Amino acid sequence: MEIKLKCSCGEASCPEWAIIELQGVVEVQPAFQERLRNLQIGILCRPSSQENYTFTVGYHELSGSKIPMKKPLLVLKKKIIKSDMEIDQKDDDDDDLNSSRVELEVIGIIRQRILFKTRPKALITKPQSPVKKKKATASVAIVEKQT
Amino acid sequence: MTEKTDSRFTKGADAVLSIPPNSSIPIAYHPLFGPHNDLLLLELDEKLLPDVINQRVSLRGQSDEDAVLCTQSKTYAIKFVGTSNSVFLVPPSDQFSVNEEGEDPESNAASVLKVAPGTMELVEVAPRIDKLKLLLSENTYKFDEVNEIYDSGLYQWDDLTDRVQASDEELRSALRVLSAVEINGYWRIIDQKYMDRILSMLINNSLLNDWSLNALNEDEVVESLVKDGFSRVIAHHCLEVYGSKTNGESVWGLDEKRVCVHFARGILSSFGKMKMESFMEEWARKVPGGMVVSFEMLEGEVLVEKLGIQSWVYGFSVSSLPSDPANRFSRLFQERSKWDWKDLHPYIRDLSVPGLTSDGLLLKYTRRTQPTANSEPVFTAR
């Protein structure tokens, strides 16, 4: 099969998306698992005129910088168009490319990301936040059980 | 209580990418935050962007194959590269927007729609041409084919782009190499015996009409072949396969090498292995008058085997071999365990693997031995 890559952005005006990238996983406290909508993850701050940033998550602070992507990333949206023509259509798996037609549309481009590649620094003051940052490495997985 | 977003404040990706110095913005989960498995990230070379914007890019592959991405001229494998980092995707404010009450219009803010598990990367690859060969060999065009009766194994251009993982240009060039021709909308390979029949007829007609094989008038030749019962398309195809246009508008010259190779193939396919002398004799006898055969023409077409003092020759055409390097080399070493460079070269020079030179290919698939410093290197299987 052939899937055309559709793009309605026109010349060089693809909507630009952003990436905030950090090591490890941000974990939401169980009480908030079901209420993620609009839940604040952290504060992204640019302390000077340089492209350096801090990202404060819970009482952890990450520092990083804005860097251009080596190669741009396209944001593609997969659309599945169910065809009525197919009789022996199996609809067990909507990821299956067999039975229905798939379209891929370019909906954005990513040229820059703000990358935090350092380990988080624990802040002394302890802001009340429902979100905590958990590092994969045990040493920084500061316990933050009591809320 | 939703108010209109104040234009003094930026939201979404813009807000992240244009934070003024000495300020900060809150990052939150998007109201539509979720796995969004339908959103994919594709890493792309800057130089391919115009192709994407102008919609000249497509993904090709059957459901049992790994998809490839094709531009007009190149084919790329798609590799998923996962990451253990948390990659927060922030869309621009006008995409995935919802009228939310919780959002404060009076401030800069951005929200994360999805955590991307990784990206897709492209690696240029050779087109998968063997599949094309296979498809077109299912049902070759034969002399006794009754027109308008189409059974299975026939493919139109769109059927080929559906099934063959190659860009349009690569597909067209492969069709040329295979000497395929479009007949009534279907791409076909003409059966070898049929090609032989029409070429012999063409040469015969030229003899009868006293035409020079170096200056054949297209209309005259085609008309004469049509009178003999060949279709116009096939007649024209015969000129394309065995000749080329000379300076004149519609004047063709037969290509000595291609014609001679054709006859050599014919002889060896009916006789099998032949003594060198008998083969050369037979070959020189078969080709049209004025054409001179030379053994060099058969590079990549025949192999010579020495048995005692006798040299034997047999057909082994590079065009019948797989076009992906691993299978090609394995077929070659199946035929012979040791290869001289002189013999090997014609059977691998058409291989092209992006990012790998021909030396790289040899290094990867062969072991090179050189008994003494001035002796010829010998290649064996790895």
From TrEMBL, chain A:
Pfam families: Ctf8
Coiled coil stretches, renumbered: none
GO cellular component, one term: Ctf18 RFC-like complex
One GO-annotated biological process of the protein: mitotic sister chromatid cohesion
InterPro entries: Ctf8 (IPR018607)
Protein name from the UniProt record: Chromosome transmission fidelity protein 8
Annotated source species: Lactuca sativa
From TrEMBL, chain B:
InterPro entries found in the cross-reference section: Dcc1
Any Gene Ontology biological process: maintenance of mitotic sister chromatid cohesion
UniProt-listed PANTHER family: SISTER CHROMATID COHESION PROTEIN DCC1, SISTER CHROMATID COHESION PROTEIN DCC1-RELATED
Keywords recorded for this protein, A-Z: DNA replication
Protein name (database record): Sister chromatid cohesion protein DCC1
Superkingdom of source: Eukaryota
Pfam family, one: Dcc1
Entry's family note: Belongs to the DCC1 family.
Any GO CC annotation of this UniProt entry: chromosome, centromeric region
Lineage: Eukaryota, Viridiplantae, Streptophyta, Embryophyta, Tracheophyta
